Amino acid sequence: xxxxxxxxVWLGGCSGCHMSFLDLDERLIELxxxxxxxxxxxxxxxxxxxxxxxxxxPEVDITLVEGAVVNxxxxxVLKIVRERSKILIAFGDxxxxxxxxxxxxxxxxxxVLNSVYIEKATHNQxxxxxxxxxxxxxxxxxxxxxxxxVDYFLTGCPPSADSIWYTIKCLLENKQPEFSRxxxxxx
Amino acid sequence: xxxxxxKIDDIECTGKVGQTILEVAKENNVxxxxxxxxxxxxxxxxxxxxxxxxxxxxxxxxxxxxKIQEGMVVKTNTEKLKNYKRMIVELLFSEGxxxxxxxxxxxxxxxxxxxxxxxxxxxxxDYLWQSFKIDSxxxxxVMDQSKCVKCTRCIRxxxxxxxxxxWDLRGRGINVRVSTGFDEPWGQNKxxxxxxxxxxxxxxxxxxxxxxxxxxxxxDRSFLQRILEGREAKIWVR
Lengths: 187, 238
Description:
The complex is a heterodimer of chains A (187) and B (238).
Chain A: E1 4-10, H1 16-22, H2 27-34, E2 35-39, H3 50-54, E3 60-66, E4 69-71, H4 72-84, E5 85-91, H5 93-97, H6 109-119, E6 137-142, E7 152-154, H7 161-172
Parallel strand pairs in A: 1-2, 1-3, 3-5, 5-7
Antiparallel strand pairs in A: 4-6
Chain B: E1 3-8, E2 11-16, H1 21-27, E3 51-54, E4 61-62, E5 73-75, H2 79-95, H3 110-118, E6 134-135, E7 141-144, H4 153-162, E8 167-170, E9 177-180, H5 197-201, E10 207-209, H6 222-232
Parallel strand pairs in B: 1-5
Antiparallel strand pairs in B: 1-2, 3-4, 3-5, 6-7, 7-10, 8-9
């Protein structure tokens, strides 16, 4: 049997989940024996227009998606990734609930943009409209499960390395991860 | 004292007349999820998480407020109940703005405990993202309405134990809020004795110590136990 193909994706999040992934430490070596990293922001990421990059997202067995869906690019990326992944995992609380990025849902998008780019800006006060540089924000930040079908939910902010390991191990061994306090945590 | 025998999840149980299904279930190590129930306060059956099936009854009944009866056959964990309970917890999460990562009681929260208990790996409903008030006018405590689950523990402990009745409910349906009289800022309320009982019994991060930050606050309910023991020993009567 060939190696299991894994990809990871970073949407509207702080990359803390990816950092936690690196906390697998020596288990990463064990993982590399049986799995191959096809695409991930922590392996090689040079282009600054993510949507372009994701057109080439490979066919994989498992994709971990970090971050909430906050802008139009996120929606497109997520749809591409879903199509090319056998199993898609919502990786961390932002992907699952919206979490901290979703705090802006308490305000109107225009008010948020005005506050950041005009009222509190000291130079060059204007809201960027060039979509290539800054993707358009959605009206509401939503969990990824509101856009595509999600197979597993890996909770935590960030998920502990143990939770990540447990989930991946289960999938590699063809077992269903069991959601319980012992294996996962919120927040 | 007369004894009542009943069956809870196929376990033969005995209890005293006047006990609730919840009390007898606990004594027999049958775990029933609860949120509004707290020993020492009058049950209100507000959260509906302790709903159980009783053979012969067409409706589900709250275990916290239903007295045991001879020959009762109670089921606490059927597929139907499991489904409802997960739905209730999900609706609670979707109604308030429960961002665990930034909450003062993260890791020590009864709503989180319930989430684990019902196996809530995600919320299937749309989050409402309602706008809520935070009242930080009190010198010692803060109330964040966005985390409130309307269990009314704060209202009951203030009324029944402290005797001040600072809090009550106002509004209807989704607009229900825990509120001081005339909705005045908490810090200006003359009835509040600053005892902090409401803060300690709050199951979530809606009421917390002023200087607590994320994951820091652990509620201490030992005072309730002292009061209960005092009541039982008839040290004082109300």
